[in-house]
Write a structure and sequence with these properties.
This protein is an alpha+beta fold. It has 2 domains: 168 residues, Sandwich (Lipoxygenase-1), CATH 2.60.60; 30 residues, no CATH class. The protein is built from 5 helices and 13 strands. The relative contact order is 0.19. This is Tellurium resistance.
């Protein structure tokens, strides 16, 4: 084997290992379901991550402002971030939550609002890692202990905008599931619903011992109570508030 052949084979192996490491399944309207059981991923801790950022058209719109600059030439001397804010960029606080129903009939919610952070090693075997209010790179994460899957009847993972201007259409949000084994599962919240405040993202149901994940991506104009009615959970809801964020 020549030096160049050996070098190429080495690079090819790197690409192959890299593609395996980044393997993913996208749940779409045409392909909305995946079986964690058939993927060999129905054990261990399932990590469910929400990440988002403002769409670039809202924060990088400088190339389309020529008419505005002609009407107000002084704007060209403003810092870019100020120009962006004067175009109506809003602060968005997306929260990740999960409705759960256990096999024994127990029901509830895991979410930042009300500090219902759940428990990973006791019912409901669902735990929220924390509350990200600023769209950081790590986002928000819910863990599901699938070693207790026989106790879980169904879950509904949802995202809502807490007490802010509805702006799902101005964020680029994605929910990613990281099983303990096999490829990650991605769901893009890419549908336009400018006035929606909540979105049911995925459901997970124990169907005769098989864990099936289904893409929902159903936007509603209300909050958790409306999602509850849509999916027939039957909980009682009241207005809740968060503690003020530390600055």
């Amino acid at each position: 084997m020549s030096f160049w052949q050996g070098l190429w084979r080495g690079r090819e192996a790197q690409f192959e290992s890299g593609s395996a490491a980044t393997n993913s399944i996208a749940l779409t309207k045409r392909h909305p379901t995946v079986s964690l059981t058939k993927q060999g991923a129905a054990t261990g801790n399932l990590r469910v991550n929400l990440s988002w950022r403002m769409r670039s058209s809202d924060i990088e719109g400088g190339t389309k402002r020529s008419g505005g600059l002609l009407r107000n030439p002084l704007k060209m001397f403003q810092p870019e971030v100020v120009q962006a804010h004067t175009q109506g960029v809003v602060n968005v606080d997306l929260d990740l939550g999960c409705l759960y129903e256990m096999v024994d009939g127990a029901k509830g919610v895991v979410q930042p609002l009300g500090n219902f952070f759940g428990d990973l090693n006791a019912p409901p075997y669902v735990k929220l890692s924390g509350d990200d209010r600023f769209g950081s790179a790590s986002g928000e994460t819910i863990y599901v202990n699938l070693d207790h899957r026989e106790s879980i009847k169904r879950l509904l993972v949802f995202v809502y905008i807490y007490d802010q201007t509805p702006a799902f259409d101005r964020t680029h949000a994605k929910v990613t599931l990281y099983p303990s084994n096999g490829p990650r599962i991605e769901i893009e919240l890419d549908e336009h619903a400018p006035q929606a405040r909540s979105c049911a993202v995925i459901s997970m149901e124990n169907v005769k011992g098989e864990l099936v994940v289904r893409r929902e991506v159903k936007f509603v104009y209300g909050f958790q109570a409306e999602l509850d009615r849509l999916f027939g959970w039957g909980l009682q809801w009241g207005r809740g508030y968060k503690a003020k964020a530390d600055k």
